[in-house]
């Protein structure tokens, strides 16, 4: 689903989004662990039965990880880095499409960057944009 977020609407969605990205991080860690276990099985010349059991477990974990990623992106939120817990919310600054940027550990969405910039290009939202009442979905002043 595509939608434009204001800082206020992004922050309203944040508790759900944060819970979801933390689950995705945990799922990714589980996939990595299962991959390592599978490699140990291969390296130890274990029976095929053990390999296939672990491979099926890995397949299910990968499928669940991708389902979780799809679910968060259905909210209109893009995962920029699972490892860093970095997410972007599409928005507009005046007539320009921009990203509102949030990272796990931050208390709210406080930064934005242009579409062709990444995390290093983050700029703080203006205090005006941060304090605007939610009923005003004015996307113009993200300075």
Report the radius of gyration as a whole number of Å: 19 Å
Oligomeric state of the chains?
A: single chain
| Helicity range | 40-55%
The major β-sheet equals: 5 strands, antiparallel
**Please, how many domains?**
1
Mean pLDDT over all positions: 89
Strand content: 15-25%
Shape assignment:
elongated
**Topology order in helix (H) and strand (E) letters:** HHEEEEEH
E-strand count: 5
Q: Ends: how far apart?
A: 26 Å
Poorly predicted sequence stretches spanning 5 or more consecutive residues: 130-138
Q: Helix segment count?
A: 3
* Strands side by side in the biggest sheet: 1-2-3-4-5
Main structural class: alpha+beta
Task: Kindly describe this structure.
The chain has 143 residues and is an alpha+beta fold. It has one domain (1-133). The protein is built from 3 helices and 5 strands. The protein has a 5-stranded antiparallel sheet with strand order 1-2-3-4-5. A hairpin with a 7-residue loop joins strand 3 (96-103) and strand 4. Helix 1 (7-43) runs antiparallel to helix 2. The protein is elongated.
């Amino acid at each position: 689903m595509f939608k434009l977020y204001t800082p206020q609407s992004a922050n309203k969605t944040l508790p759900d989004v944060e819970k979801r990205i933390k689950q995705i991080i945990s799922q990714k860690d589980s996939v990595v662990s299962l991959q390592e276990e599978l490699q140990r099985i291969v390296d130890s010349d274990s029976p095929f039965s053990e390999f296939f059991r672990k491979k099926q477990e890995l397949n299910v974990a990968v499928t669940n990880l991708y389902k979780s990623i799809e679910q968060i992106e259905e909210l209109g939120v893009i995962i920029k880095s699972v490892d860093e817990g970095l997410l972007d919310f599409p928005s507009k600054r005046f007539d320009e499409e921009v990203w509102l940027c949030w990272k796990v550990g931050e208390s709210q969405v406080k930064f934005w960057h242009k579409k062709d910039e990444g995390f290093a290009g983050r700029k703080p939202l203006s205090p005006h944009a941060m304090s605007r009442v939610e009923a005003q979905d004015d996307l113009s002043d993200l300075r």
